[in-house]
Design goal:
The protein is mainly β. About 0% of the residues lie in helices and about 80% in strands. The protein is built from no helices and seven strands. A seven-stranded antiparallel sheet has the order 1-2-3-4-5-6-7, with no helix packed on it. A hairpin with a 5-residue loop joins strand 3 and strand 4. The radius of gyration is 20 Å and the shape is elongated. The relative contact order is 0.19.
């Protein structure tokens, strides 16, 4: 999350794909992501931490297309576009400098946004018998806020 104090976070997705042809698929996805970070600042010459916390939750459905497949279908590159509903909450402190060694902490934001959610993704499936390994980049939109998540997924074909 680009405006967070730390770029570390955790996300968990649950996805199901239903292939309508060899390359076109419908995907259902549930996504939960969380992030907590802090940074150290000075106040009257003494260091202390200010914190932030971000959470996202969404459920989306849409279409995807494998834009490249190798001959034996063990490798593909896909794009997808999904829409649904989501919630994003943000709470973080803000530090404002008022002098050379002074400052004060204010509540930067404490908001919850709900509404239309979208996920746009680009990924690469590598299949090993019934298992898949998928590195991907997903862009999430929830309540006028954008997030980018790089992921590595493991899957199983039924």
């Amino acid at each position: 999350m680009s405006d967070a104090y730390s770029s570390n976070g955790f996300a968990l997705d649950v996805r199901a794909r239903f292939y309508m042809s060899e390359q076109l698929f419908c995907e259902l996805m549930g996504h939960w992501g969380t992030h907590e970070g802090s940074k150290s600042v000075l106040q009257k010459g003494n260091p202390f931490d200010i914190d932030d916390e971000r959470n996202t939750l969404l459920g989306v459905v849409g279409l995807g297309y494998e834009i490249f497949q190798n001959e034996n279908q063990t490798f593909d590159i896909y794009i997808k576009g999904l829409v649904g509903y989501g919630v994003r909450s943000s709470r973080f402190d803000d530090y404002q400098i008022t002098g050379s060694e002074d400052g004060h902490v204010t509540l930067g934001c404490d908001i919850k946004k709900k509404g239309i959610a979208a996920a746009i993704g680009l990924g690469m499936d590598t299949r090993f018998k019934r298992w898949t390994l998928t590195p991907s980049v997903d862009v999430f939109y929830i309540g006028n806020e954008w997030n980018v998540a790089t992921m590595i997924s493991f899957g199983f074909f039924l």
